Amino acid sequence: NFIDTAGMRRKSKVDDQIEKYSNMRTIAAIERADVCLILVDANDGVTEQDTKIAGLVHEAGKAAIIVVNKWDAVENKETNTMRDKEAAVRDGLAYMPYAPVVFLSALTGQRVDKIYQVIQDVHAQNTSRITTGALNSVLADATARVQPPSDKGRRLKIYYMTQASTKPPHFVIFCNDARLFHFSYQRYLENQIREVFGLEGTPIRITIRQK
What we know:
three-stranded mixed β-sheet
């Protein structure tokens, strides 16, 4: 099922019941969806409203694809135009580095057919399950490469990691002291998981538990 939404306008413009209802429908559609396509206008770039919608998608843990539409309307394309535009889009949606970016034109149909396989791929990643053995192999390599942090002579000890659920993939890491588990080290472990298992197009949830 494909759900189209009316999008969201700036709050200053939401002054009637129709727009308020439209915003509620957008939020409900995100909750209902397995995969969310975040449409960005190729000429406008990432707008404030795009970041708002993308933020809702990210927080909801949905598989996501950033779709740059109206690519046919971009004039004076050169060799690096697409690369530069992707860099600008990623900068605007910096909290979604995992989401693939697809350039297309709904008007001409250019590359529209490519989107279906990407939808299947990100959905598979969002629902993927990784064995505890495979996760702890990655964990052992990661901690051997970069030692866990310490504070006032007390070092973080990580015992093991397991996957608790999917949609999005949620990992639970057990350690000796959760206060020592700095966010930067958590981000490092997330990057290691992505490097080995991919998980493109899906956010990851990590919960730290003290044992």
